[in-house]
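Researcher: We plan to redesign the surface later, but first we want a full-length starting point. C-alpha cells attached.
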C-alpha cells in the first residue's frame, strides 16, 4: 500500500523569497518617510536650535542635494559591486543620520546628518533592479509597480506620523523612531534579500561621479535657493553658469571614458531619453499637489479660503492619496501588462491633470480638496509605476540600477523645480492679513494650473516614447539562474 506523500515543510530559503518584495517595499516607504519627517519641524526648528530660518531650511535642502547626487552614483555602484550590498549601505547611512539628529540640537550637525540620510534616495532604484534580477516576468510588473508607489505611500504616512510625534513628544523622538525603523529595514534586507548575480564589472568612474556631483549641486542649489537669494543675484547666476559649464564638461568626459558613470549613448535612445524627460515633468506635476495642499488647508480662515487646519489634520488630508497609491499599484501593473507602460504613463499623467482641474474648480470645501488630491495621487501611482518598467524594458540587465537611478534623479530635479516655481507664484500673488502677506486663492489656483499643464505635457511626451518590442521567451544568461534569466530586453 502506498504511503501518503509527506507534506513539504517550507524552508527558510522559500520564506525569504516570499518576503523579498515586502521587505524591499518597506525600505522604499522608509526612504520616503525619512525625507518627509522633518517638514512639520521646520516652523519650530529656529527656536529649538537657535538657528536662523534660512539655516534651518538646509535640513531639507541638504537631503535633496545629497539624494540627487548619490542616487545615480550608488546605482552605478550597485550594478558593479552588488545591489544588495549597496542597498544595505544606503539604509545604514540613513540610520546613522537619524541617530545623529536624535543626539544633537546643533544645526550644523543636523544639516550634515540630513545630508547623510539622503543616501536612502537610492533605495528605490536599487530595489527595482533587484526585483528585475530575482523575479520571474509574471511577478515582476506588480512588484515594480508597488516599489514605485512606496514614494507616495511613505510621504503620505510620514507627515501625520511626524506631526503626531512633534505635537505630543520631544522632537528628538521622531529621529529615534526613524532610526529604529531603519535598523529594522537593514536587518530585514540582510535576512530576506539575496545578492543579485547580475553585475556590470569595470572600474568605477570617480571623475564622472565628482563631475556629476559638482554640476548637480550647482544646479539644484540655484533652483532651491533662487527665491530666497534672488533669481538675478550674483550667487544664483554664478551657480547656474557653473552648472552649465560643469555638466557640459561632464558630458564630454562620459562620452569618452570606457566605463562611464552614466551611459549617455544609452540615454540618447528615444525609449530611454524620453522616459527621463517624462519623469522630470511628472515629478514637477506630482510635487505641487502635496506642497500647495499643505499650505492651503493650513491658511487662516480669515483669508476667505483657508481652513486653519493643524499640521496633524493636514497630514490626514493627504493620507488618502498615499493609501490610493498602495491600492492602485496592482491596477497600474495590469494596464502595463495589457497596454504597455507608455500607455500607463500617459494615462497617469492625464489623470494628474484631471485632479488639478478638480482643484481649480473648488479648493474651498474640504471634501473637494481631499477628492482632488486623491485623483492626483491616483494618476501619480499610474505614472510612477510605469516609469521604471519603461527603463527595465529599454536597458540591459547590467545597467538597470544606474539607469533607474538617473530616472529617479530626473524626478528629483522636477520636484525641486516645482518647489521653486510654486514659491515664486505664491510670493507674487499675496494680500495683507493683519499686516502679514499671505498667498491669495488666485495664486494657489495658478499653481494648480501650471502643474496641470505640465502633467498634460508629460502625457504627450509619454505617447512619443517608442513602443516596446517583446523579447524572445526563455532567453537566459549563462548559468541558467532564474534571477538572471532574461538578458534580452523584455517587452510589455
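Model: Full-length starting sequence:
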Amino acid at each position: 500500500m502506498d504511503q501518503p506523500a509527506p507534506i513539504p515543510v517550507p524552508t527558510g530559503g522559500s520564506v525569504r523569497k516570499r518576503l523579498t518584495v515586502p521587505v524591499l517595499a518597506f525600505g522604499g516607504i522608509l526612504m520616503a518617510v525619512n525625507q518627509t519627517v522633518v517638514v512639520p519641524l521646520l516652523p519650530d526648528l529656529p527656536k529649538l536650535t537657535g538657528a536662523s530660518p534660512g539655516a534651518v531650511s538646509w535640513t531639507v535642502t541638504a537631503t535633496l542635494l545629497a539624494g540627487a547626487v548619490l542616487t545615480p552614483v550608488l546605482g552605478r555602484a550597485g550594478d558593479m559591486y552588488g545591489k544588495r550590498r549597496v542597498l544595505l549601505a544606503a539604509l545604514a547611512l540613513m540610520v546613522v543620520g537619524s541617530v545623529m539628529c536624535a543626539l544633537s540640537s546643533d544645526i550644523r550637525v543636523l544639516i550634515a546628518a540630513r545630508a547623510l540620510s539622503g543616501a536612502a534616495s537610492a533605495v528605490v532604484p536599487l530595489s527595482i533592479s533587484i526585483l528585475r534580477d530575482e523575479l520571474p516576468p509574471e511577478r515582476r510588473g506588480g512588484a515594480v509597480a508597488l516599489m514605485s508607489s512606496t514614494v507616495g505611500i511613505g510621504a503620505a504616512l510620514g507627515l501625520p506620523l511626524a506631526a503626531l510625534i512633534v505635537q505630543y513628544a520631544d522632537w528628538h523622538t521622531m529621529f529615534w523612531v526613524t532610526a529604529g525603523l531603519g535598523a529594522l529595514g537593514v536587518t530585514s534586507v540582510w535576512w530576506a534579500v539575496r545578492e543579485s548575480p547580475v553585475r556590470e564589472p569595470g572600474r568605477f568612474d570617480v571623475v564622472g561621479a565628482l563631475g556629476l556631483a559638482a554640476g548637480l549641486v550647482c544646479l539644484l542649489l540655484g533652483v532651491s535657493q533662487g527665491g530666497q537669494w534672488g533669481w538675478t543675484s550674483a550667487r544664483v547666476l554664478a551657480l547656474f553658469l557653473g552648472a552649465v559649464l560643469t555638466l557640459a564638461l561632464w558630458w564630454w568626459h562620459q562620452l569618452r571614458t570606457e566605463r562611464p558613470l552614466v551611459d549617455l549613448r544609452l540615454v540618447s535612445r528615444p525609449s530611454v531619453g524620453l522616459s527621463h524627460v517624462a519623469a522630470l515633468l511628472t515629478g514637477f506635476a506630482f510635487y505641487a499637489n502635496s506642497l500647495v495642499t499643505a499650505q492651503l488647508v493650513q491658511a487662516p480662515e480669515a483669508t476667505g479660503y483657508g481652513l486653519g487646519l493643524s499640521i496633524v489634520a493636514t497630514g490626514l488630508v493627504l493620507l488618502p492619496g498615499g493609501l490610493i497609491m498602495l491600492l492602485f499599484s496592482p491596477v497600474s501593473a495590469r494596464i502595463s501588462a495589457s497596454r504597455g507602460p507608455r500607455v500607463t504613463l500617459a494615462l497617469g499623467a492625464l489623470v494628474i491633470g484631471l485632479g488639478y482641474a478638480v482643484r481649480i474648480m473648488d479648493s474651498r470645501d474640504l471634501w473637494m480638496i481631499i477628492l482632488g488630491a486623491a485623483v492626483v495621487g491616483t494618476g501619480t501611482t499610474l505614472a510612477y509605476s510605469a516609469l521604471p518598467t519603461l527603463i527595465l524594458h529599454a536597458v540591459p540587465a547590467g545597467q538597470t540600477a544606474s539607469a533607474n537611478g538617473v530616472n529617479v534623479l530626473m524626478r528629483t530635479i522636477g520636484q525641486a523645480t516645482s518647489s521653486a516655481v510654486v514659491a515664486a507664484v505664491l510670493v507674487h500673488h499675496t494680500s495683507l492679513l493683519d499686516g502679514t502677506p499671505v498667498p491669495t486663492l488666485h495664486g494657489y489656483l495658478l499653481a494648480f494650473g501650471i502643474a496641470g499643464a505640465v502633467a498634460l505635457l508629460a502625457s504627450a511626451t509619454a505617447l512619443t516614447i517608442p513602443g516596446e518590442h517583446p523579447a524572445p521567451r526563455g532567453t537566459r544568461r549563462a548559468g541558467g539562474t532564474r534571477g538572471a534569466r532574461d538578458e534580452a530586453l523584455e517587452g510589455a
